[in-house]
């Protein structure tokens, strides 16, 4: 399941390349807009590249979760090519990264 409600306050998105990436991101943004109590963990382990549209969706999700809702957004499983996109765009400085899904879930649970 690409997007799942992991707990009452955590959504886990197991993202893949487009077009699934776009569909899942839209669903997560809607979920977080409807429920401002949600933290989000995105696993990019199956994502091999990011385009400008994907980056825009990540930034929109960040705005909804971190800025509007004052909740946490973590990203994990980033491969070397995708990490390069974060570095080149400077987005590595505004997103929070963790190594893997268990680390991310633990971090979100501890911060409640």
Name its key features.
21% strand, 46% helix, 5-stranded mixed β-sheet, alpha/beta, globular, 112 residues, 5 strands
Describe the structure.
This protein is an alpha/beta fold and 112 residues long. The chain has 4 helices and 5 strands. The protein has a 5-stranded mixed beta sheet with strand order 1-2-3-4-5, sandwiched between helices. Helix 1 (20-34) runs parallel beside helix 2 (52-68). The longest helix has 17 residues, at 52-68. The relative contact order is 0.18.
Number of strands: 5
Fraction of helical residues = 40-55%
Strand numbers in spatial order across the main sheet: 1-2-3-4-5
- Mean pLDDT over the residues: 95
Question: Largest sheet, described in full?
Answer: 5 strands, mixed
N-to-C SSE string, H for helix and E for strand: EEHEHEHEH
Number of helices: 4
Provide the structure class. Answer: alpha/beta
* Bulk shape: globular
The rounded Rg comes to 13 Å
Strand content: 15-25%
The separation of the N and C termini measures 25 Å
Low-confidence stretches: none
């Amino acid at each position: 399941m690409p997007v799942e409600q992991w707990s009452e306050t955590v959504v886990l998105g197991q993202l893949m390349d487009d077009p699934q990436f776009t569909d899942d991101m839209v669903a997560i943004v809607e979920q977080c807009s409807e429920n401002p109590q949600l933290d989000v963990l995105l696993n990019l382990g199956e994502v091999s590249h990011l385009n400008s549209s994907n980056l825009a969706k990540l930034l929109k999700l960040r705005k909804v979760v971190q800025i509007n809702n004052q909740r946490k957004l973590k990203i994990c499983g980033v491969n070397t090519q995708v990490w390069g996109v974060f570095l080149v765009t400077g987005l590595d400085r505004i997103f929070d990264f963790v190594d893997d899904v268990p680390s991310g879930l633990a971090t979100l649970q501890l911060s409640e």
